[in-house]
Amino acid sequence: AGVDIGADTIVYPGTMLRGRTRIGTDCVVGPTSDLLDTVVGSGTTIRQTVAEGAVIGDECAIGPYAYLRPGTKLAHHVKIGDFVEIKNADIGEHSKVPHLSYVGDAVVGSGVNIGCGAITANYDGYNKSKTEIGDNAFIGSNANLIAPVRIGDGAYVVAGSTITHDVAEGDLAIARERQVNKPGYADKIRARAKAKKDRATD
Predict the structure, then answer these.
(1) Which of 26, 49, 75, 107 is packed most tightly, with the most Cβ within 10 A?
(2) What ranges in the chain are assigned the alpha helix state H?
(3) What percent of the chain has pLDDT over 70?
(4) Which residues are known to be catalytic?
(5) Are 64 and 47 in contact (CB under 8 A)?
(6) Given this model, what pLDDT does residue 200 score?
């Protein structure tokens, strides 16, 4: 009874709208989405998504298979892609978290791109800490942002980096070991493994 759906919104089969969920006009929701106590702006598309206590702006694209946990606040024109989890985080306008990422206890500015597999490491086993990402920052794939940490406006975090210190505005951060190639070593490992297996079967 507490659900409100705006004009010209399409709700596809298998979708559950529960609690005090409110959906704006000209939205597409589902199929098989589950929204609880969630507010959705107008012109937004939500596919195969679970959202609880989230606020979603106008003309956002969510899913498929996204999970928006309580405290999620998405501004207008935000993209949250497949297998992305957002928790207690503000995401600014025109920012993108396209796939396979976790953003928790964070404030993300506008025009930010968060690459595949990037996470905010917000919990140390005892306390939860905040990550701040400035406007127009770029977070490369498979980056770990160890909270509390701040990434400045326009900063660039290189893919595969584990960031433990603040990155200033406009800076580029690299936090990974230099690649070392061992010539022929893969063949040595295989030969050693084969010899061990042969001894075990004798």
Answers:
(1) 49
(2) 185-201
(3) 100
(4) 99
(5) yes
(6) 86
